[in-house]
Amino acid sequence: MSYSGKCMCGAVKVEVEGEPIAMMVCHCNVCRSWSASPVNGATLFKPSQFKIIEGENFLNSFSLTEGHDRKWCNKCGGHLFTDHTNTYGVIDVYGSILENFSFKPSAHLNYENTILPINDGLPKFKDFPEDFGGSGTLLTE
């Protein structure tokens, strides 16, 4: 199964093959600031599952911290993905841009920073799971 995605104006098109490694909701200050929303839906794919189909010349990037290369379309400003290949070995294609994709998160990240408490029964990590370099500490809903 493959999923296509695009920026708001359609100048940049991406495709992912197969299912994501993980889907999570991030509540950190950086993701909230970048997405201009109370949470960010992280949909993590291996780099081999991801490709830019069209409009690579319209991509701009910004890295607040090394290894977190955020990409957006310079025509419409639409955010597309964050390249984490140098830090976590994954690409976070924003689940909201993928057509016919069902976003089903397995956990919440950086929940200690939440401004939108969500009572959905999913694990709420204070920061990150241990296998992502975090403390693995869980918080209550």
Number of beta strands = 12
Helical amount among residues, as a percent range? under 10%
Q: Could you report the average pLDDT, rounded to the nearest whole number?
A: 95
Strand order, sheet with most strands: 6-7-8-9-4-3-10
Could you write a compact summary of the structure shown?
The protein has 141 residues and is mainly beta.
SSE layout:
Layout: E1 2-6, E2 13-17, E3 22-26, H1 29-35, E4 40-45, E5 50-54, E6 59-62, E7 69-73, E8 79-84, E9 90-93, E10 107-109, E11 124-125, E12 138-139
Parallel strand pairs: 3-10
Antiparallel strand pairs: 1-2, 2-5, 3-4, 4-9, 6-7, 7-8, 8-9, 11-12
Overall description:
- This protein is mainly beta and 141 residues long.
- The protein contains 1 helix and 12 strands; from the N terminus they run E-E-E-H-E-E-E-E-E-E-E-E-E.
- The protein has one helix spanning 29-35; strands spanning 2-6, 13-17, 22-26, 40-45, 50-54, 59-62, 69-73, 79-84, 90-93, 107-109, 124-125, 138-139.
- The strands form 3 sheets. Strands 6-7-8-9-4-3-10 form a 7-stranded mixed sheet. A 3-stranded antiparallel sheet has the order 1-2-5, with no helix packed on it.
- Strand 8 and strand 9 (90-93) form a beta hairpin.
- The longest helix is centred in the first third of the chain and has 7 residues, at 29-35.
- It is globular.
- 30% of the residues are buried.
